[in-house]
Amino acid sequence: MARLAGVSRATVSYVLNNTSAVRISEPTRRRVHEAAKELGYVPHAAARSLRAGHSRLVLMPAPSFPAGPLYSRFLGDLQLALGRLDYTVVQHGSIGLHGDEAARAWAELRPVAVLVSGSGLGPKGVTVLKRSGARAVVSLGPDSVEGAHALLMDYEAVGHSAGRHLYDRGRRRIGVVVPQECGLESFSAPRLEGVRRALHGTDATLTELPLAYTEESAARLAARWRDLGLDAVFAYNDEYAMLLMRALADEGVRVPADTAVIGADDLMLGRLLRPRLSTVHIELPSGRDLAELVDRAVRDPGTAPETHKVLGATVVHRESS
Amino acid sequence: MARLAGVSRATVSYVLNNTSAVRISEPTRRRVHEAAKELGYVPHAAARSLRAGHSRLVLMPAPSFPAGPLYSRFLGDLQLALGRLDYTVVQHGSIGLHGDEAARAWAELRPVAVLVSGSGLGPKGVTVLKRSGARAVVSLGPDSVEGAHALLMDYEAVGHSAGRHLYDRGRRRIGVVVPQECGLESFSAPRLEGVRRALHGTDATLTELPLAYTEESAARLAARWRDLGLDAVFAYNDEYAMLLMRALADEGVRVPADTAVIGADDLMLGRLLRPRLSTVHIELPSGRDLAELVDRAVRDPGTAPETHKVLGATVVHRESS
């Protein structure tokens, strides 16, 4: 490669390792890079990070599949924004691994930053990651973790808005759908708690409604709807709301006359339904803002962990409530 | 660590590096691993792969977000199955990178296997990956790539089934929705081609219908529906079908009396619609089968590239067609 570029071997090494201690002119750098490309040279990220002591690798959680289109899009935007800041973004599923055990698996890759979502990482896991060279650990979810930056996603606010809205519409016997699918507890428990908080000290009652995302489960729930005596339901999100509304229609339950329904996520789906579905619009942080927070934390790993509340919840009132 | 485990430093090194040249008893191994755990030792995947000459790292494409729930679930299952075979699975977005340029970025991570989907990887990219130590490159998509194993996803079959079904139902003026969203061409072009093939040599006509996934775009298309004079439409997938059916209903176009509609993907959504949506059920390969193919290819990198057709398409006839 040195021969092709017409420079010394040492120069090739300096250029390819991006050594800043040695000054090399721009045209020489370009010649070396062109020769490298022509020869099909690929730097070894692992070797490079061993030399540099840290990598540009950011681990972020892979979208867990029941999480819905809104959250998946947010993770997609974040990945794009980190890529633009020249990080190598890699998504790491935590399949079969939990909490601190997952942290050890991630630490093996020696990432410079790790984003974790909602899943039981403890202070010990954060320590393992930091000791392995992670300059920033950022938790995304309803809880903060000691030693990590936290972007608190306040899903209680979603439930609170929905519960408040139904109460304000004059409803007093309020059901809350609790999905039975694995991996949704960290989203659904705080939503339920938010409704509870909104109704606390009022004359309204709250009924938990376990529901799997199947037509059979929805039909069973709808079949005992009149016995439940509910006049409103917060259906967890728009997809569960659509499933439940269809089952209620099949049972002759009128929406909103007999039962008001509100979902969450503000999917296009809800606008296409008749009656049009009321929903809680959720504002997630922009991928760019979050990428910049990660970048700041990487540049200045000494700063104390920051906590930001990052979730906005606004009711969009349509026809179903 | 040697002190804690009560063994020599060399033994610790042999155990943690999993050296097979030296025989070490199981109890000793266990003592070393326990000491390592207690001290919070995390092996460096990069260093380990430098020593071993290859890694257990498998790169697979991150689900690109417009790809829909079916394909996302398939990628999720695959990730799970590879994890069970003890690979470290990492999803790599190809954001901002295409084809051989993406291959160079992936090669830097020195994966033992790379799965790529649809997006313009050429024989040169395959060579770069192999020269960097990838023992298996597997393409997932409508086309095969020289030098790589291919799992051919024959999306033409989806369009062919839909076109054939509409023709068999007596329809002759058939529209095909072509989504305007980026990243869907590699799915939509073959579907269109499949319909074309199904209608070839018949008395039926085919009309391409560009459609963005917005209510406005659907309303514009529905407004000129009667001028188009179509008696059937293959709506690309169930989500576009729902969007279009709503817009057609608002224009007073009756489904299926005036226009038959068929989607694809067999989402639950379609069963919830009224009329119930006809659809093409798509059978993707099981994550486990695909993981085993990857594992075989890694163990025996010398085998000639295999090509498997892996996509089944079956019409599910409901009320809309």
| Largest sheet: number of strands, sense, barrel closure of chain A | 6 strands, parallel
Stretches with pLDDT under 50, minimum 5 residues of chain A: none
Shape of chain A: elongated
- What's the total number of strands of chain A? 12
CATH superfamily of the largest domain in chain A, called what? Response regulator
Question: Class of the largest domain in chain A in CATH?
Answer: Alpha Beta
Number of domains of chain A: 3
Q: Which architecture of the largest domain in chain A would the CATH scheme give at its second level? A: 3-Layer(aba) Sandwich
CATH topology name of the largest domain in chain A, in short, is Rossmann fold
| Beta-strand percentage range of chain A | 15-25%
How much helical structure, as a percent, in the residues of chain A?
40-55%
Structural class of chain A: alpha/beta
Instruction: Tell me the greatest interface.
Output: A-B, 49 and 49 residues
Multimeric status of the protein: homodimer
* Spatial order of the strands forming the largest sheet of chain A: 2-1-3-4-5-11
Organism (chains A, B): Streptomyces caeruleatus
Protein name (chains A, B): LacI family transcriptional regulator
Keywords (chains A, B): DNA-binding, Transcription, Transcription regulation
Domain HTH lacI-type (chains A, B): 1-52
